[in-house]
Design brief:
Elements: E1 3-7, E2 13-18, H1 21-24, H2 30-44, H3 103-119, E3 123-126, H4 136-145, E4 151-155, H5 160-166, E5 173-176, H6 182-187, E6 190-194, H7 195-205
Parallel strand pairs: 1-3, 3-6, 4-5, 4-6
Antiparallel strand pairs: 1-2
Helix pairs in contact: 2-3, 4-5
Length: about 210
Amino acid sequence: MPKVAVYNMEGKQVGEQELNDAIFGVEVNQDLMHKVVVSQLANRRQGTVATKNRSAVRGGGRKPWRQKGTGRARQGSIRSPQWVGGGVVFGPTQRDFSYRLPKKARRAALKSALSAKVASGNIVVLDELKLDVPKTKVIADMLKTLDVQKPLVVTAEWDTNVELSTRNIPGAVVAKSMGLNVYDILNSQKLVITQDAISKLEEVLV
């Protein structure tokens, strides 16, 4: 089992934590992680873009001139695509981009992402992360002491004080262990996670 140091909020090492091989020591599958990230980003798309085709553009209800005898090219409507102000040909339409991958694939990708962080040494384990009141300076000082930039801060349960204290720090993202996802892990420079959050992950993923 991989071992990592455990720190307190003052940045001092207070012990060590053994991480479960089934979650933090699996073989990294980059192809699977890529597929999960692509699906996550696709599911975030609103798909509300649209253009008007020739049937949706206002006007053009009658033929602009007669079919023959004018010397001009035949036209059926001033809202045909070749006219200025006409409809758009093959323009984007509203659609749903979302799709789902199998649950086992998503879990395997999550384990791969966590294992990649451990293998690269980009994981920081905290004994606890609690604040009595929202205070950005406390979190900022902690991250500076631990030499962490662009962190993903993971707690066992949602903590409003931690979220409010972290949201003004550039690049910092807060998540609870049950909402952890591959994109946020890979998009962060370091994973800052509490011991309680690790226990929660082990309960679900093992």
